Amino acid sequence: MLFDDTPYIAEDGQVHRGLVAMLANHMKAMREVLGYDLFTQEELVDRPLNEFIGLSRRYLAAAPSDEELAESEAGQ
User: Fold this and answer.
1) 15-16 and 8-9 as β-strands: parallel, antiparallel, unpaired?
2) H/E run at residue 16
3) What is the pTM of this model?
């Protein structure tokens, strides 16, 4: 299912086609199978794997929650 170019319908109803739809469909399939959206080979990251994992966890911890994002969008 690497090249699923069927239109992707986002939660807000927006329809995506082409490369965006392919990426969205691929990420959805990965999430269902592996539990996360992106998967890459260790050889493709720019640092040792443990450092990359630590960096990813720090980014995730610093990211706003879904509730915070919704609040900031509602306040705009």
Assistant:
1) antiparallel
2) strand 15-16
3) 0.55
The pLDDT profile of the chain, 76 residues, written as one tens digit per residue, is: 567 879 999 989 999 999 999 989 988 888 898 888 777 888 999 999 999 999 999 998 999 988 888 888 887 7
CA separation for the pair 59, 26 (Å, rounded)? 23
Q: What share of residues in the chain are helix, strand, coil (percent, to 5)? A: 55, 5, 40
Domain borders along the chain are 1-39, 41-76
**CA separation for the pair 22, 24 (Å, rounded):** 6
- Contacts of residues 71-75 at CB distance under 8 Å and 24 or more positions apart, as own/partner, are none
Alpha-carbon distance 22 to 19, whole Å?
Answer: 5
Q: Pull the structure tokens for residue 53.
A: 């994992």
